[in-house]
Amino acid sequence: MPHATNSDQLHGTLDMLVLKILEAGPLHGYAIAVRLERMSKDVLSVEEGSLYPALYRMERRGWLGSAWSVTDTGRRARFYKLTKGGRAQLDAERASWLRLTTAVADVLNG
Amino acid sequence: MGAIRIALARLRALFRRDATTDEIREELNFHVEMRTDEYARDGLEPRAARQAALRRFGNLAVIQDRGYDVRGGGVMEDVLQDVKYSVRQMAHQPSFALLAGLTLALGIGVSTALFSVIDAALLRPLPYPHPEELVTIDVEETSGGKPSRYVPSMSDIRTWRGLTAILSHVGAGRVSGFVPLIVETGNPQRLVVGEASEDFLETYGLSPVLGRGFHLDDMSPGAPAVVLLGHAFWQTEFGGDRNVLGREVRLQDRPATIVGVLPAGFYQKTAVWQPRQLSAAMADRRATGTPVVARLRPGVTIAQAQAALDAVTTSSALSGPKPGPTRVLIDSMYDDETRDFGTTIRSLSMAVGLILLIACVNVAGLMLARGATRDVELAIRAAIGAGRGRLVRQLLTESLLLALAGALVGVLIAYASLDSLVALIPLSLPPNSPVEINATVLAFSLGLTVATALLFGLVPSLKLSRAPRMISSMLTVAGRGGAPLSKRAGQWLIGLEVALALVLMTGAGLVLRSFAKLVSLDLGFDTENVLTLEVEPLEQVASVRRQYYASLTDAVRQIPEVTAAGAIDHSALTGGSSFGFVKADTGVQVGGPQRTVLPGYFEAMAVRPLSGRLFNDADRRSGDVVIANAAASQQYFDGSAVGHTVQIGMKNARVARIVGVVPNILHGGPQGRVRSELYVLPDPNDAQATWLRLAMVMRLREGASLTTDRLKQIAESLGPRVLVGRVTPASSFVSEQVSRPKHRMLLLTLLAMFGLLLTLVGIFSMTAYAVARRTREIGVRVAFGARPGQVVRVMILDAVWPVVLGLGTGLVGTYYATRVIASFLFRTTPHDSMTLVAVVAVLGAAASVAAWLPARRAASVDPVAALRAD
């Protein structure tokens, strides 16, 4: 079933990737999807569309903000940007990732 | 699967047309168009490009729907939809909705009404402003090292009144409890008359509705005779006439002027109040039997008041020549009032608490049972795109709807049952302050039951959330009953419920058994077909009274319907008696009640002599014969009283011969004690016996009846002016004695039956739940050759074990809980084994049947159908 992609771990990964992508500046959904694709083949491998419920969820949590704007080609699109909360979340994720990798490295090297 | 999912999602999308939907659609379309453009740039045909983009994107409708769930655009719309869906769900399973709703309603209704009554009895026992300030005051004097408690004197009161920082008011008052006085306002009646000092009414915080209260001037012995009217008496006797002030009533044949009318509800049964006029010597005397009430200044504690009053209070003549310490004792009136029915309140609260708990357990069980049958439905809904939040909301809506419907009916039940409960509960509730449904109590029982419903209604969603992965597996696993957690939960609930029900039923069983013993007790007389007539001449002359009663007896015997007639002390009717000692020829003092009777009394009450004879009419002339009861004969004469003589009377002692012994008669009803009693005749030579007041007792022929008017006419036709009181069947005096235990028994039995019913419903539904969950397992067992009987046995065992454990736990609880009602019990110990055995048997059997009925269904499971069910 496609919902298997919704497991917590993938959720978390997707969230972190989106936050990371938006750290550089506001983007619309399609642009996020394109960058995601470039970073990881897995996250949206099955249904690109599942990005959107994830975006809404993150917006609801206060990590993202959104507004309608116009693209370079003059089309109307909804743009997402990182909020303060989103930035904090990204930092927290980074810190915990660092802790984990350090711990793993310690185990492997020790 | 996929086709259905998409179809349903499209359907849902169809019904969602608002700004949020449009926004989401536009955003998703933008994405698909961008992707299409990209594919087109890669060289695909526009049509193929769009196809590829859509495939890549996933299902538009589903994603739009999921997105909508997250954005939560139309909350109101969702709620409305949830409600519609819930109503439809309940209509599908009306038995569940009805059971759960009724359980909730009854649980809330009964407990709220009962707790409200209890609360009213506990918190508002005194219908006066600031009842917590009201106290009673006694003085304790020590004589010969022994402290005794006395009522303070009027002089004490007047001294204490100087302590204005401690007491705001203090007064004394009492009602003529034992002997009502004759009040004449046209026709004479015996009525309860009160006697009050100045400041008595003010202490209670009340003022007359008409005229004035008593002043200090009214209290001196020579002052003009004045009276205050009780509100009820003013209404019935004067029709509430506002011009009643200045009119006259006769009190014990002396005139007195009406100066005021008291407010309603104050000593309701007291018709008239007179001032407490005391001579100077009497005013100094303590131990007069007139209690002292006072009102503390706000904030003054009892200890402070006691210390302050101690300082100004000295010993009196009561202490004797060598007085010990004298102390002032102050009690809160509120505490005194509530102490009396504390046991009733405690046991009722416990019973109601148990009912409420059982109702909660039941609701929990029903919600679990219902949730179990919905795993598949919820999994499907999750699969077609309903977010978890959405499902939780749906479950919440269903539980809430059910809880609210139940609560609404419950509140209606509470209001409807309040009055009958007040009538049934043996509590002395304050007059003039009607019991109302208590908002706090209502909130509490509502909160408890509704919270239970919501909590357990959400259980299915917990399973969903454990891992979204389970959703898919649940679709195939559902019905196999692989969740041991919920099986055990059901068993826990059954056990808990049985334990609670056992405690409740044992309490009721004990009270029931005690009541059965109470009413089946042989009182020593037969009250069937016996009438009593209260009557007395107004003239306070001994010979007139004696003669009147003798002629009345003769006149009553002339009535064809009457087979036997006599008379007895008026006080015997209410369980009272005059107590005394007489000297026997053996030298011993014979103590105990002495009852004055007229010949014919024993015949009328169907009492036969154990030895010797009964009185005959010839004895009336001499009055020198006595009859003893069996207890007196045993205690003082070694069982052979007949032939002995006793000296009766103090001033004009006369020697009387014991001519007979009768069985012990419990005039005071079954709860009275057997005492040594002597039956005497009125002394024909005693001119002091102006108090003689008898009640006629007559036995009627089987099936015959006599009207009050006819008896009244006979009583009034004999010459002297008389006061005719009530005509009452003798049996009613006995039933009055047992009315409290009877109400208690009825109420507790009702509650216990109610608790049992709830418990059975619970066990039934929880077993049904277990069976429903395990349909597939049963199917497998049957397919592998298990006989239906074995399957049923497994299902029943699963339900019976918790019942047995519950019974065991309940027995332990019972051991402690029944102590509360020990003081109610008549010749029954709180650990009465017969009651316990009976209750365990009834509850065990009923619980087993409740488990067996749904378990039987397991036997009829068709293995093929069960296995193919998915």
Description:
The complex is a heterodimer of chains A (110) and B (870). Chain A is elongated, with a radius of gyration of 15 Å. Chain A has a single domain, classed as Winged helix-like DNA-binding domain superfamily/Winged helix DNA-binding domain (Arc Repressor Mutant, subunit A, Orthogonal Bundle). In chain A, strand 2 and strand 3 form a beta hairpin. Chain A is of the alpha+beta class. In chain A, 57% of the residues lie in helices and 15% in strands. In chain A, strands 1-3-2 form a 3-stranded antiparallel sheet. The N and C termini of chain A lie far apart (41 Å). Chain A has helices spanning 8-23, 29-39, 51-60, 84-109; strands at 27-28, 64-70, 76-82. The longest helix of chain B has 37 residues, at 388-424. In chain B, the strands form 2 sheets. Chain B has a 6-stranded mixed barrel with strand order 4-5-10-7-9-8. In chain B, strands 15-16-21-18-20-19 form a 6-stranded mixed beta barrel. By secondary structure, chain B is α+β, with helices and mostly antiparallel strands. Chain B has 4 domains: 2-73, no CATH class; 146-323, no CATH class; 342-519 and 739-868, no CATH class; 539-720, no CATH class. Residues 467-472 and 474-485 of chain B have low confidence and may be disordered. In chain B, helix 6 packs across helix 15. Chain B starts with a helix and ends with a helix. Classes of the chains: A alpha+beta (110), B alpha+beta (870). Chain A binds chain B through residues 1-4, 6-7, 28-30, 33, 46-50, 52-53, 56-57, 60, 75-78, and chain B through 23-24, 26-28, 30-31, 34-35, 56-60, 63, 66-67, 69-72, 383, 467-469, 471-472.
